[in-house]
Amino acid sequence: MLIGVIADDFTGGSDIANTLAKGVEPEGGLRTAQFPGIPDAPADPAIEAGVISLKSRSIPAREAVRQSLQALDWLLAQGCSQIVFKYCSTFDSTEDGNIGPVADALADALQVQGVVVCPAFPAAGRTVYQGHLFVFDKLLNESGMENHPLTPMRDANLRRVLSRQTSGQAGLVSHAVVSAGDGAVRKALMDIAAQGTRFAIVDAVSDSDLLTIGEALEDVPLVTGGSGIALGLPRNFIRRAKARGGRSPFRTVSGPAVILAGSCSGATRGQVERYSREYPAYEVSVPAVMTGSVAAADLLAFVEQHREQAPLVYSSSPPGEVSELQSRYGREQVAEALEGLFAETARLLVQAGYRRLVVAGGETSGAVAKAVTDTLQVGAMHIGPEIDPGVPILSLGEGNVLLALKSGNFGAGDFFSKAVAMMETPG
Questions:
Q1: Which residues pair with 49 in a beta bridge?
Q2: Is 88 within 8 Å of 117 (Cβ atoms)?
Q3: What is the pLDDT of residues 39-51, one digit of tens each?
Q4: Which neighbouring-strand residues pair with 259?
Q5: What are phi and psi of 102, to 5 degrees?
Q6: What is the DSSP string of 281-332?
Q7: 424 strand-pairing partners
Q8: Where would I find the H helices in 167-265?
Q9: In this model, does residue 152 exceed pLDDT 70?
Q10: Distances 363 to 43, 68, 103, 389, 422 between C-alpha atoms, Å
């Protein structure tokens, strides 16, 4: 294994795994696998890039650091020469972390300075300019992310955000430097490291910028960022004949499909509204879940009634309603109850013969992926075709079950129907 990724949630893991598997022309990508948590056995030697998906974004910082260092140890044992710490392209974190503490711990372990911090993902509208993070034409704190139920982002200045999470200040590699080429970026990072500065926010407003940054990161032990930062990394290895490249074999499946949506983002709510116009849909009532009057068996019964219609089960409320429910029942209690419900439902669905599962929401995806891989007793999830930017199809085991794990804000309006169709073997 050449590149090892530590992702702080499951959809982010799928996102960067997709980036590594695609690469860029003419070199292409790497043979990539995603792992639901830290494996307890060595990886297949044919895997060139491995992505460990943790659920460390919103847990206590100390535990996030512990898990991330364990993941680092496993990846280094597989021979990885470059580690990527992957977080959300909207820099989802609290005032205390966990991006800063985890990045600090990884940098300490690898004994590096001048570590790149670049959440840019231009294909999804996330760009960094003068150290500020934008979502399309809006600053991060004006994009809707300021209302996120778990990690509200109220500051677009990444140097300022990071300084509140770590012990030192971050440097800046401006867009003017990036535009001057990979040599200029490399020198700027070396200068920042020589000053003893731990981190460097790097501007990027286009894929071309990310490719320039990627060339400057050849032989760099630690990189942090969104999935876009990995765009140019595979070709560094392929050009030096250290990687063969190419995707793992992929095949579609027959059998029933289901959509499970646990995200409250605007994009997912729009996708839910559009899909439910034509297909059966069941809205999960949070009060009913919290009082125990709705359980996984009830969701399974609804899905089974519409087995051949790719039904949708969702819990995707507007921000105001989410806040009210969190105040009534407790934020962590609501999240834990819904994740447990979707995980148990997924386990029952796989046992009932469902072979295509589309999941929306980072926390929901993590719970579902863990439940499905545990049920099937499989480890690596191989990366298949891309449905929409940042969202690939994942093939489990011998390819009998396919997953699509979608971050809340990702995907076009017709994402659900498109995903179901792309997974299916034509009859």
A1: 3, 32
A2: no
A3: 999 999 999 999 9
A4: 312, 358
A5: -70, -45
A6: EEEPPHHHHHTTSS-HHHHHHHHHHTGGG--EEE----HHHHHHHHHHH-HH
A7: 253
A8: 175-179, 182-194, 207-216, 233-239
A9: yes
A10: 25, 17, 21, 19, 24
